[in-house]
Amino acid sequence: MLNIIANCIGSGKVPKFVGLLDLYPSASVAYSLRRLSGTYIGSAIRVRRASDNAEQNIGFDALGNLDTTALTTFVNEDIVLLNDDFSSSTGWILATGVTISGGLLNFSASNGTATAYKSLSAQPSSQIRVTYTISNYVSGNILFLNFGGGGSGTSRSSNGTFVDTITTVTGNANWGFNTTTFTGSIDNLQIEVLTSNGFVTTWYDQSGNNYNSAQTTATNQPQIVSSGNVLILNTKPCIKFNGSTNLLDLPSGLANVFQGQGKAISSFNVNTYPTTTSQTLFILSNNANNDDYYYSGSSTGLGKYRFTARGAGGLLKQYQSINNFTIGNQYLKVDILNLESAGVQLGSSWVNNVLDINSQDYATASKTLNQGAIGALKRIVTAGYYNGNHQELIIYPTEQTSNRVDIESNINSYYGIY
Amino acid sequence: MAFIKGYKYTTEQDAINAREACDAYYGIPVSPEDVTQNWCDYQIAMLNNPVFWYIVYDESLLPILGEPIEFEVFTEPMQNI
After folding, report:
1. Do A381 and B60 touch (CB under 8 A)?
2. Among residues A31, A151, A192, A335, which one has the fewest Cβ atoms lying within 10 Å of its Cβ?
C-alpha cells in the first residue's frame, strides 16, 4: 500500500511504516485522518458518540488508514435509553385517564386518542429498536413514536411482544405511545439506540509537538459519523463542519511558533471549497485583539480562496485566487510565505498543484499570536464559520517551496484529488 | 452584521445559567476526563450597544431553552479580515 515501504522484504521483519512526515519532517503541526509518521503511535481522533455522549480515541488500521471499523463499532454500540417495567410512574407524562399501576401502563378506549411519553434524550438521525409487550388487549390501536422527532413504529392491535425498528429524523427528547380508542396495557418497554452520530472532540497532532486541536463544547464539535456511517469524501473519511457553530481550537503553543515579525509558514490543507464567501479553513490569531493573524479560507468573491496576514495596528495584507473553484469540491490548498526579509514577505498559493496566488508581499507589523482555530474565524469573538469538510492540515514553520511538489504528490496519491 | 437564530441574554451570568441548564440536562461531562465539558457555549455581541450574550440555536437546546428568537449581531465586515 501507499504508505507502507517494505524495506525489510525478504528479511522476515515486519515492514516499517513510512509516512509523509518521515519524508518531509519538522512540521509544527500535522492533523490527518491517515497516519503520517512511522514514529507516531497515538490516535487520529477522539470521538464523542451522540447516543450517550461517551468518548473514545480512534486510531489507524495496519495500512495507516483511519480505523473506521473501530469508529463505527464505538459510535453504533447498542445503548439502552430506557428499560421500564412500570413499577413507577416517575417521569411519565400521561394523558387524562391513562394510568401506571400494578406494574403496567394502562389505556382505556373511553379516552379516545391518548398519549403517554417520557423525556429521555433526543437521538437525531438514529436507528432505534423498541420492544414492548401488550396485554389485556380489548380494542383499538397503539403506536410507539418519537414525538416530533420523525420516527414511529407499527400500529399494534393485539396482545403480544413487539419489536419496532424506527429511524428518527430531527430527533426529540419525548418517547412514548399514541393510541386511538385503545384499551389494553403495556409492560417491559425497552428503547435501544442501534446506530448513532459521532463528533470529533480532538484531532490529534501527529508531528510530535502535541499541538492537538480540540473542542470542549458538544454542539461546536464537527461530525465524522452520521446515521451510523462514516462521512466520506472521495472514498476517504472526512470531518464535516456545519457552518454555524463547529470549530476545533488550536493551542496557544502552536500560535506562538508563528508570532513575531514575518515568520515563514507553509500550510497543506485538504478541504472542500466552502459554501459561501469568507469562511475559515484555519486561523492563527490573538484572543485580545482583532489585528494579529494568519488566515486561510474563502475570499469575499465566491469561488475564490484567499490568504491573509495582519499585524499590530491592523495593517491588512490579503490576496485572493487567480482561479475559480466549485462549492463542495475537494481541493488541496497550499499557502507558502517566506521569512520576511528587508521588509518584504513574499507568499504564494497553489490549489491542486496550480499556481493560485502569485508571489505577493504579506509583510505586516509584528504579530502576537496566542490562539487559533480550524473551521472558524476565532479572534476576540468568533465568526466566519466553515461549511465544508477537512481531511488533512499540515503546517510547517519554514517555507517548503523546494518540497512543495513532492508533498503535494504524497497527499494527492492518497486522497486522489486531481 | 449577521442575523442569528438563538437565545439572547442581557447578562453573562444569565448565559452561564442557560449553559449549565443544558449541561445538567445532557449529563455533561459524562466523566471528568472527557474532553467535552459543556453541551453548548455562549458568545458576546461586543459590537452591539448595549452588549449582550447569546447562544446559537441547535435543535438539542429546544427542550431546555425553548423556542429560539432571531436577532442582529454586529461584526466586523468580512472583507476587512
Report:
1. no
2. A192
Q: Which of A191, A192, A177 is nearest to A106 (CA)?
A: A177
> 121-140 in A: which are within 8 Å (CB) of B?
121-122, 124
> Each residue of A31-66: pLDDT tens digit?
999 999 999 999 999 999 999 999 999 999 999 999
> What's the whole-model pTM score?
0.93
Q: Is B37 on the interface with A (CB under 8 A)?
A: yes
Instruction: Tell me which H or E stretch contains B45.
Output: strand B43-45
Q: Amino acid identity of A354?
A: V
pLDDT in the model for residue A16:
87
Nearest to B81 among A52, A215, A384 (CB): A384
pLDDT confidence tier of residue A223, bands split at 50, 70 and 90: very high
Nearest to A55 among B35, B41, B56 (CB): B35
Q: 3-state class of A159 per DSSP? A: coil
**Tens of pLDDT along A57-108?**
999 999 999 999 999 999 999 999 999 999 999 999 999 999 999 999 999 9
**What is the C-alpha radius of gyration for chain A, rounded to an integer number of angstroms?**
27
Beta bridge partners of B4: B71
Give the angle subtended at the CA of A168 by the CAs of A96 and A84, to the nearest 5°: 50
Contact between A316 and B39 using a beta-carbon 8 Å cutoff: no
A48 at the B interface (CB within 8 A)?
yes
DSSP string covering A38-97, please? SS--S-SEEEEETTT--EEEE-B-TTSBB-HHHHHHHHT--EEEEEE-SS--TTEEE-TT
Q: Which of residues 258-317 of A touch B (CB under 8 A)?
A: 277-278, 290, 295, 300, 308, 310, 316
Q: Is B23 on the interface with A (CB under 8 A)?
A: no
Rounded (5°) CA angle A335-A299-A366 = 55
Q: How many CB pairs under 8 A join A and B?
A: 89
- Does residue B10 register a pLDDT over 70? yes
In this model, does residue A143 exceed pLDDT 80?
Answer: yes
Number of H helices, E strands in chain B: 2, 4
